[in-house]
Amino acid sequence: xxxxxxxxxxxxxxxxxxxxxxxxxxxxxxxxxxxxxxxxxxxxxxxxxxxxxxxxxxxxxxxxxxxxxxxxxxxxxxxx
Length: 80
Prior knowledge:
With 80 residues, the chain is mainly α. Helices cover 76% and strands 0% of the residues. The chain contains two helices and no strands.
Protein backbone atom coordinates (compact mmCIF):
# COMPACT_ATOMS: atom_id res chain seq x y z
CA UNK A 1 0.00 0.00 0.00
CA UNK A 2 1.44 3.33 -1.02
CA UNK A 3 2.08 5.88 1.67
CA UNK A 4 0.13 9.11 1.14
CA UNK A 5 3.37 11.12 1.20
CA UNK A 6 4.87 8.88 -1.50
CA UNK A 7 1.74 9.30 -3.59
CA UNK A 8 1.92 13.08 -3.23
CA UNK A 9 5.61 13.07 -4.21
CA UNK A 10 4.79 10.92 -7.24
CA UNK A 11 2.03 13.36 -8.22
CA UNK A 12 4.37 16.35 -7.92
CA UNK A 13 6.93 14.59 -10.09
CA UNK A 14 4.29 13.70 -12.70
CA UNK A 15 3.13 17.33 -12.85
CA UNK A 16 6.72 18.57 -13.24
CA UNK A 17 7.52 16.03 -15.95
CA UNK A 18 4.32 16.84 -17.84
CA UNK A 19 5.03 20.55 -17.51
CA UNK A 20 8.57 20.20 -18.87
CA UNK A 21 7.33 17.97 -21.66
CA UNK A 22 4.58 20.33 -22.76
CA UNK A 23 5.92 23.78 -21.84
CA UNK A 24 7.98 24.34 -24.99
CA UNK A 25 5.40 22.84 -27.33
CA UNK A 26 2.48 24.76 -25.82
CA UNK A 27 4.53 27.96 -25.64
CA UNK A 28 5.43 27.76 -29.32
CA UNK A 29 1.82 27.09 -30.29
CA UNK A 30 0.63 29.99 -28.15
CA UNK A 31 3.24 32.39 -29.64
CA UNK A 32 2.15 31.33 -33.12
CA UNK A 33 -1.48 31.98 -32.20
CA UNK A 34 -0.59 35.43 -30.82
CA UNK A 35 1.47 36.22 -33.91
CA UNK A 36 -1.55 35.50 -36.10
CA UNK A 37 -3.36 38.13 -34.06
CA UNK A 38 -0.55 40.61 -34.73
CA UNK A 39 1.07 40.25 -31.30
CA UNK A 40 4.72 39.34 -31.50
CA UNK A 41 7.89 40.35 -29.73
CA UNK A 42 10.79 38.71 -27.95
CA UNK A 43 9.31 40.11 -24.75
CA UNK A 44 5.97 38.34 -25.23
CA UNK A 45 5.60 35.45 -22.81
CA UNK A 46 2.49 33.39 -23.26
CA UNK A 47 0.64 32.32 -20.14
CA UNK A 48 0.52 28.63 -20.93
CA UNK A 49 -0.32 27.81 -17.30
CA UNK A 50 -3.85 28.93 -18.11
CA UNK A 51 -4.03 27.43 -21.59
CA UNK A 52 -6.88 24.97 -22.16
CA UNK A 53 -4.39 22.30 -23.26
CA UNK A 54 -2.34 22.50 -20.06
CA UNK A 55 -5.41 22.72 -17.84
CA UNK A 56 -6.77 19.56 -19.48
CA UNK A 57 -3.49 17.69 -18.94
CA UNK A 58 -3.34 18.84 -15.33
CA UNK A 59 -6.98 17.89 -14.71
CA UNK A 60 -6.38 14.35 -16.02
CA UNK A 61 -3.41 13.97 -13.66
CA UNK A 62 -5.42 15.31 -10.72
CA UNK A 63 -8.27 12.88 -11.44
CA UNK A 64 -5.89 9.95 -11.70
CA UNK A 65 -4.10 10.74 -8.45
CA UNK A 66 -7.32 11.65 -6.65
CA UNK A 67 -8.60 8.14 -7.31
CA UNK A 68 -5.35 6.60 -6.06
CA UNK A 69 -5.42 8.84 -2.98
CA UNK A 70 -8.94 7.71 -2.13
CA UNK A 71 -7.89 4.07 -2.57
CA UNK A 72 -4.96 4.65 -0.18
CA UNK A 73 -6.90 6.73 2.33
CA UNK A 74 -9.81 4.34 2.86
CA UNK A 75 -7.82 1.41 4.33
CA UNK A 76 -5.88 3.82 6.54
CA UNK A 77 -9.07 5.28 7.98
CA UNK A 78 -10.50 1.81 8.57
CA UNK A 79 -7.33 0.85 10.45
CA UNK A 80 -7.92 3.67 12.95
